[in-house]
């Protein structure tokens, strides 16, 4: 990979990767209804599927990490090419406005669904209290904070500092920083969702800054991409160790603080894997087609809409699928939620005001036919 060609134009492979990382959240949230998950809206009466659950938890340890890494990289690209004002305007349209639009109804809908699952009566007080929870919208809050509250010059300075570090030292620094914020999150986990979001945002800001620095220091990519840390076998081995750690915790029903050990182990993998993913997908040179474009364009709306659907589906489908078909139960729920969310995306796409609210470009209107023009 030559640095002068790195993201010299739109890269469909990386756009597609970012969309897939977002959409995997649908499967993750569907799987959380299986036994073994804690503090979820609905836990199904199904047999525990340790291997499947371990795979899902393992994927979740790098999914959002890689997403923020990509977000930082694309942010640096927009800054460099179109300037700070364009970047801020774009973030308002693509991140902040969808956050406001989603928060207007998601907490309310989730309150109604949660009350129905628990068999509780609805109340105005309960509805208002429902708006003290972000649910799955937290990542838009974090991305907004990284975009609007942290000056671009800070990322530039961090990029300069990262440039001076050999790649192994940089990886170690990123791992340490991420784990420090993870420990802080653990210490404040009972202080409320909004307080807990501060160390969560700081932790993912580490990945955002790393991606930002990668773009600014793209001349070092040929050297970084050849690092022994990014060897395919080593990356695969790190992933396998992380996966096995999750399996042991689930299979042995470990509920003490030791249950966080796999997360700490996976922090090593997630940093390395973020770089590996970018270099791998950048080289794919995917061609844009209707399916890929549709997935890329619809990913955010589908992710926003799926949450109440997948939780309601977990509740309603539980009685209709045998207890021994845990994985089938998850995949059916995921498929239904994806289909319904896609339908909502298509509806939103057809109405300009809704398209604007959710950061979409309105559907192009068909040009009038020659016959109509003559008439």
TrEMBL record:
Domain (Acyltransferase): give its ranges: 12-345
Q: Which UniProt keywords apply?
A: Acyltransferase, Membrane, Transferase, Transmembrane, Transmembrane helix
List the Pfam families hit by this protein, alphabetically: Acyl_transf_3
Query: Mind telling me which residue stretches traverse the membrane in this protein?
Result: 95-117, 137-155, 167-188, 194-216, 228-248, 260-279, 300-317, 329-348
Highest taxon in the source lineage: Bacteria
Any GO MF annotation of the entry: acyltransferase activity
Q: Which PANTHER family match?
A: BLR4337 PROTEIN, MDO-LIKE PROTEIN
Under which name does UniProt file this protein?
Acyltransferase family protein
